[in-house]
Amino acid sequence: MVSRRGGRPRVTAVEWRVLGLMRQWWHQPDHFDWLSVYVKTRGMHLMWRAGIATVCAMTAALPVALLASSSHPHGAFAGVVAPFVTVVGTMLALLWLTRWPTRRQSIAFSLIATSCVAATCLVQGDPRAGILGCTAFAMLGGYIAFFHTAGHMVFSFSVAMITTFILAARLVRVYDVVLALCAFAMIFMLNVAFPFAAQSLVHALSIDVRRANLDALTGLLNRRGFYQAAHALQARRREPQTYLGVAMIDLDKFKRLNDTHGHAVGDQALVEVGNVLRDNCRATSVIGRAGGEEFVVADTFSTPDRSSMAERLRRAIAAIPYPITASIGTASAALGEPSQVSERRLLDRLMTSADTAMYAAKRAGGNQIRSASFADVDQNSTGSFS
Q1: pTM of the entire structure?
Q2: Domain CATH for 247
């Protein structure tokens, strides 16, 4: 309800709340990276790939199958569009059979599939067959709602409703208004209820997952959350030459701080170190508390040398108002083609190497950095410290 004061409409608190919720919904982040990692770490990615590929293949076969039906007339362009859509749908199914797509490939998949469904429905000679095909938009909308943003959902919904409206108008001419309205209402409800329910569910799940992955004291990622976020970092689209860098950070003289000033002061120091890491790392960095007074940072870079980053962190930690310093070990390796096995092996090797380098810095007296570099994840090199 809009009230007026001085002739101007005034937005009520309820309307502000609704507008705020709409803005919050519109600006929700893309779910693709974390949900892909979640599916992989739960061992469900093969089942998901097989399921999506099966749905793609079955849906792709329908346009050509309808050409064999003699119970309804075929549209003028059905003989061209149907085989084309079948070929494209088969290629999309093969994509899912061979690999889990990147975010951009997933977006392209949803856009291509949406266009193919719309084209198939519109070329049907009988509008009833076209309206029936519009139910496929609900499946696509559910997929987009799970993995992508509100903008992509709105695009898919708009295409679905425009296609359904055109077919409903044809239903009015061929049959009657009641049938057209009922068909339009059914498709509308399917494309609202299923995708938006899926989007609400995955958003709530993302909040719970993120909370479960946070360290209660520092607000940084815990070990499980770090691994999931680091795998998502590796899965993102990269430039041809990209390096994954990991830094292991262990606080020097922290036990003495706890013994001298108490655990409350020690906790305050850990919180301050967490703030320092957030302030001195890039927004894309994955920062976690590995346990106790040990922290870990991961990010992708265009060069393998991470000494400048490590030195910046070392100086920032030494400057906090607590009698502690940091020993830092770094490791980096070139990223190749993403694959589940190599991603896990690479991250584990880098963390182990960075941890070894960090202990080398600690044995040398602390408040130092050491680096270990790997030329290739597939080589069984042991790395060298510098």
Answers
A1: 0.65
A2: 3.30.70.270
| 183 and 76 both lie in a single domain | yes
Q: Which domain does 21 fall in, by range?
A: 8-212
Rounded to 5°, the CA angle 364-365-366 comes to: 105
Quote the tokens at residue 275.
């703030």
- As a whole number of angstroms, the distance between CA 152 and CA 28 comes to 12
Q: Are residues 131 and 236 in the same domain?
A: no
Residues 6+ apart with CB under 8 A from 273: 218, 251, 295, 317, 320, 324, 326
Q: What percent of the chain has pLDDT over 70?
A: 86
Q: Which two tokens stand for residue 9?
A: 């409409």
Cβ distance 297 to 351 under 8 Å? no
Is the Cβ–Cβ distance between 75 and 124 less than 8 Å? yes
Looking at the fold, whether 241 and 169 belong to one and the same domain comes out as no
- Name the average pLDDT for the chain: 84
Q: How far apart are CA 143 and CA 363, in angstroms?
A: 52
Q: Which of 11-15, 293-297, 330-334 has the lowest mean pLDDT?
A: 11-15
- CA 101-228-371 angle, to 5 degrees, is 105
